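Appendix B: a complete holo record

For completeness, this appendix reproduces one full record from the ligand-bound portion of the collection. The bound molecule is pyridoxal-5'-phosphate. The inputs are the chain sequence and the ligand SMILES; the output is the full three-dimensional arrangement of the complex, encoded as structure tokens. No fields have been trimmed.
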Amino acid sequence: MGIAQNILSIKSELPPQVKLVAVSKFHPCEDIEEALACGQTCFGENRPQEFEKKAQALSGRGIEWHFIGHLQTNKLKMVLPYADLVQSVDSLHLLQAIDEWGRKNGKVIPVLLELHVAAEETKQGFYEEEVLDILFRAESFKNISFRGLMGMATNTDCEDDVRADFSRIRACYDYLRDLFPEYSSFKELSIGMSGDWRIALEYGATMVRIGTAIFGPRI
Ligand SMILES: *Cc1c(COP(=O)(O)O)cnc(C)c1O
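The structure of the chain with pyridoxal-5'-phosphate bound, as generated:
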């Protein structure tokens, strides 16, 4: 199937309130153009250099850009001028650097906090208590807008393990939403990728990040 068909088919299964983030990493701008032509306007990238190049090449096209990869503090200037949402804030150090960048550049940066859940040692992210701690002093991050949580399930064929991960992310999300009702903009739950987005919907995903199932395998 082609890119347009893939998008339309996924969209037909997504509830209207769930945002599709088309993960275009490793794919050329022509593929993004094809997706744009069928009405897809939100794209995700995970490498700062590639993100910057594409955002510049496609500026003025009405794209909503999400950054979804590990971000080093020395690469902020490649990402923050273009990102409509940084989904992958995974350390306090990074959060502070983004806040500082925002202060210097007169911008408020919308972010999701990435929760550490998957079993793999390599997965980045915060533990629940760290997220709690950050939100307790959310006011002190003046140039950050906290929009919700992002998480990745363990990369496994075992559906029970994936469900356990999503369930844990959802529980943390519900807990925080109850605890901080005043942060009405803290409402996004970004879970679900090509292999598990249908399951993620059952756990209340408000955003799904889908690459391979739209653009095909990455080279
Ligand atoms: C690459 C990536 C995705 C998309 O993965 P697919 O399996 O190709 O859909 C989603 N989220 C993050 C954080 C990614 O890095």
